[in-house]
Amino acid sequence: MDAIRTEDLTKHYHVGFWRPRPYIALNALNLTVGQGEVFGFLGPNGAGKTTTLKLLMQLIYPTSGRAEILGRPVGDVGVRRRIGYLPENPYFYDYLTAEELLAYFAGLFGYAGADRSRRVSALLDEVGIGAERRFQLRKFSKGMLQRVGIAQALVNDPEVVFFDEPMSGLDPLGRREIRELILRLRDRGCTVFFSSHVLSDAETLCSRVAIVARGRLAAAGDLSELLAFQVRAWELVVANVEHARLEPATSAGDVTRVTSLGGQRFALEVPLSADPTRVMATLGVHGAQLVSLNPVRETLEDFFVRQIAAAPSDRGLEPVSR
Amino acid sequence: MRMIGHIAVNVFKESVRDKVLYNLVAFAVLLIAVSYLLGQLTAGQDVKIIKDLGLAAIATFGLFIAVFIGIGLVWKEVERRSIYSLLSKPIRRSEFILGKYAGLVLTLLVNVSVMTVAFYAVLAYLDTQFAETVRASWPAPATDPGMLKAIVLIFVELMLVTAIALFLSTFSSPFLSAALTFGLWVIGHFNADLRNFEAVVESPAAAWLARALYYVLPNFAAFDVKSQVVHALRVDASYVVTTALYGGVYVALLLTGAVIVFSRRDFK
After folding, report:
1. Which residue in the set A58, A96, A108 is minimally distant from B3, CB to CB?
2. Is residue A50 domain-shared with residue A63, that is, in the same domain?
3. What is chain B's percent helix, strand, coil content, to nearest 5?
4. Same domain (yes/no): A169, A293
5. A51 lies in the same domain as A170
6. Whole domain around residue A235: which residue ranges?
7. B82 and A91 in contact by Cβ < 8 A?
C-alpha cells in the first residue's frame, strides 16, 4: 500500500467576477509515495505545491481526479488520525500558549491527563522550544511559530507527515535541527512528504522527488536516477599560468569557461567533447601546473532549472495569489 | 460530541482571554450607577426602571457579544489560516461549526447568568431601601422570579442571533455579516408589521411578499416579554416553551445551512 497516491488530481479556479475564466492551479497530477520515504515536492513559487497539499488535506476539493492517503480517500476522518500537516506560514490562536495549543490538538486525538502533558512536553523538547512554551503565541517570532507548527503536526505520532515549506522562517541552526528531525522521523518509519523551493534541503533529505512547474508534474523519481550522476563537463584547476596563455584553448573550444581564482590560478571548464589531458599538455608547455581535475556533475538545481524551463506555460491565466 | 465539546471549550477560553467577559463589569457599574442616580431623583419608581433597564441591558450586551463574536468565529479562523491545522485533525467540518457555535453559546450562558445574578443582587438591595407601604404599591416584588421567563427568552433570542451571525459568516465578510445580522434583528422586532402589511398597501404582490417575509424571517418580537414581566402581566410557561422551541427549530435550520455551506467551501 502506498502512503500517498494521486490520480489525475486537478484543480481549477475561476478568476474574475463578471466573466470568470478558469485558472489551472494543478493539472492531472499522478504521484505515488511509498511508505517510509522522505519525498521532496519541489517547484518554484506558484507551481501548485500548496494546492496539492491542500487537496491532500481536503482543505480544497479537486475539480477532477482523486487522492488517497494510506489507501483511504483523503476525506476519511479515520485517516486523519494517522497523518500530520504543517501548513505554509502556520498561524495559531494568539491567546493560547504553545503548551495549551498542543494540548488542545492532542485532545482532538484523544490524549488526556498526564499522558497528554507528557506528549506535549516531549514534542516541545523535540522542536527546541524551551521556557517560551508558557508564552502566549502572539509573542512568538516566525521561526518559533514554525517550530510550534512542526510540533502540532507530530502530536499524534503520525505515520505520514506533510510539511509545506518546513524550513521557512528558520535560521541556519533551526534548519539543521529540522533536517535532523526529518531524518529521525524517517528512521522511525514515518513517511515525510515535504514541499520546498530550497533544493539543498531536498538534496540532503530526500530519497525521491517530484518537480512541479506551472501546475504540471515535470519530473518524478529517485534523485539518483533523475540526476543520473552524469558528468556534463570537466573542471580543470591550473596554477602558474598567465590569462593570455589560455586564449588558444578557449578559441579552439577546448575550454568553455574560465574562472579566475586569483594569483595566476584558474578554473577551466572543459566540455566532454574535448580531452582535458590534451588541454593540460598544451598549458604545461608554458609552465602551468595541474592543481586538480574533477568531473562536473549535474546538480539538482541544474535539473530543476531545465525542467522548469521546459514546462508548458498554458494555465488558462497568469498565476494568481492563492 | 467529544470533538464539539473540545472545540467549544476552546472558544470559551478565547472569549475569556479576549476579555469579552469584561462587559460584565460594565453591566454591574451601569446598574449600580443608575440605581444610585435614580435613588436621588425618584421615589418608588426606581425598582421598575431598574427592572426595565436591567433586562434591556442583559439583552443589549448579549446582542453585541452574539453579533461581534459570532461573525468572527469562522471568519477569523479562515482569515488567519489557523483552520488549516485544525481541519487536518480528525474532525468533521460539521463538528467544527457546531463546536464553534456551542462555545459562543456557553460564553453567552455564563455572561447572561452572571448578569442575572448581579441584576437580582441590585434589586434585592433596593428592596431593603423602601418601606413596606412603598413595596406594597409595586405590581410585583423587586426580586420577582417571573422575570426569569424574560431572561430565558432573551437567552434563546441570543442563541438565534448567534446562529444567524455564524451562518452568514460562513460565506460573507464580517462587515456584511454584522450588517445583515443587525438588519435581521431589527426587522425581526417589527415582524408583526409585515403580517399586517396587506392592510396598508393595495398591491397584492407587495402584500404577498410581506406575508412571505413574515413567515421566513425570524420573529424576534416573540422573544420580547420584558415589559410584561416588569408590569407583572401573566406570561404562560407554555408560551415560553413554545417560543423557545420556535427559536430552537430556527437555530437548527441555520446551523444545518451553515454546515452545508461550510462543508463545500474551498479554503484557498
Report:
1. A108
2. yes
3. 80, 0, 20
4. no
5. yes
6. 231-297
7. yes
- C-alpha distance from A222 to closest chain B C-alpha (Å): 28
Distance CA B54, CA A100 (A): 37
If asked whether residues A162 and A287 sit together in one domain, one would say: no
Q: How many domains does chain A have?
A: 2
**Contact flag A80-B89 (C-beta cutoff 8 Å):** yes
ipTM exceeds 0.85, yes or no: no
* Domain shared by A74 and A172, yes or no: yes
User: Could you tell me which of A40, A54, A90, A52 has the C-alpha nearest to residue A194?
Assistant: A40
Q: Which of A5, A36, A6, A42 is nearest to A223 (CA)?
A: A42
E-state strands within chain B: none
Query: Could you say which residues from 69 to 108 on chain B have a Cβ atom under 8 Å away from some Cβ of chain A?
Result: 80-92
Nearest CA in chain B to A76: B90
- Asked if B3 has any chain A CB less than 8 Å from its own CB, the reply is yes
Contact B85 A90 (CB under 8 A): yes
pLDDT tens for chain A, 322 residues: list them.
Answer: 899 999 999 999 888 878 888 888 999 999 999 999 999 998 888 889 999 999 999 999 999 999 999 999 998 999 999 999 999 888 888 889 999 999 999 999 999 889 999 999 999 998 888 888 888 888 888 888 999 999 999 999 999 999 999 988 888 888 888 899 999 999 999 999 999 877 778 888 888 999 888 888 888 888 777 776 567 788 999 999 888 888 888 888 889 889 999 888 999 999 988 888 888 888 888 888 999 998 887 777 777 777 777 777 666 654 444 4
